[in-house]
Amino acid sequence: MGRERDMGRRLAPVPVRTGTTGEDRADRAAFLTVMSLPALALADWLVLTTVIRDAQCERYQRGGGMGCGGSPAMEEAFTTGILLTFPALAVQLWLAGFVIRWLRNGSRPPLGRARFRRGN
Q1: Residue 21 domain-assigned?
Q2: 98 vs 103: CA distance, rounded Å
Q3: Does the keyword Membrane apply (predicted)?
Q4: Best CA proximity match to 91, nearest among 21, 40, 29, 26
């Protein structure tokens, strides 16, 4: 009977916070991931080329980074860095997709694990 009396009453509007749902956070994370792809690829290439170049200098023991190896060694570091950038970028995109999916699902623990409470 109590419900019948409440049916004719108007409810007061309730302010709604926008941008806090898991889908909104996941959409923002996906947008930022896509927009940062060129910078991420360039950073991967620079890091990998530098690491390969330093490894070549150490292997041949030719001194500092500038006087090390010459043109053939630099070409080798350049191409190897490019070839290794793609797998590194693929792993980073997989991790970003994992985080985006985690955000979209409401930030529940990954892999379906239950949260443990103290005292139980």
Answers
A1: no
A2: 9
A3: yes
A4: 40
pLDDT at 5: 56
Mean pLDDT value across the chain: 78
Tokens 């980074």 belong to residue:
65
- Boundaries of domain holding 47: 27-61+72-107
pTM higher than 0.85, yes or no? Answer: no
The closest alpha carbon to 101, from 26, 18, 3, 1, belongs to: 26
Structural domain contains residue 8: no
Q: Tell me if 101 is assigned to some domain.
A: yes
Number of C-alpha atoms within 13 angstroms, CB side, residue 84?
A: 16
CA–CA dist 29, 101 (Å, integer): 10
Rounded CA gap, 85 and 11, in Å?
57
